[in-house]
Amino acid sequence: MQQALVEAAKALDADEVPIGAVIVAGGKVIARAHNLVERLNDVTAHAEMMAFTAAADNLGGKYLKDCTLYVTLEPCVMCAGAAFWTQIPRVVIGATDEKRGFINAGVKLHPTAEIVTGVLEEECSKMIIGYFKSKR
Amino acid sequence: MQQALVEAAKALDADEVPIGAVIVAGGKVIARAHNLVERLNDVTAHAEMMAFTAAADNLGGKYLKDCTLYVTLEPCVMCAGAAFWTQIPRVVIGATDEKRGFINAGVKLHPTAEIVTGVLEEECSKMIIGYFKSKR
Fold it and tell me: Which residues have CB under 8 Å from A27's CB, separation 6+?
């Protein structure tokens, strides 16, 4: 999650909502990404989406069956839907997102997927809250 | 929807699940896309995702506020989540997808979005069912 926070900080530097994601397989980081919605002018360019695509590219296979996603904010419905398709078996979340997160929306990941929440939650939350405060 | 079916047929020719999407704004087609999951080796490369990105690129703005999406199969949770972020106000669907579609999953589009189902449903269904039959 520290690595995902490094990615989130890159988003912050680029004046994007500071969300970062990292995908790990076999103890190695195989993808790192941050939110690029503004830079790519694309509302679908969330950190997780970029990380899924990069990880599949890195592995050379469509599915992320032995991977873990670390993401600083709870994925939205779109990203959770993408996680389902990737069959990623483990999703580790920093801050929760009660309003736009997939958990309260009732969206399910792959049936066997493990979800861990609250990892470095305070650091992850602080970065996002700080960003929105600075925008007011 | 005829145009979306033309896109779906391109997917079929490329041995992809035959799903096509078209986005219209001001009476003009501003994006056309088909499923590219196999070609891009990316489970997130659904027709709608590609169309959203292309449409935003075409318009030069992130949001698709005056657009209509025509798609041959009911969007999945991921694509519906993406549609939410685009703020697209109208989604026209060919065949429904009871198993993987967003409607039965309880996912909501943007609150003001209009959803129309059953447009050229038979043609859209036939193409997808035919594809899966040919794979058995």
Answer: none
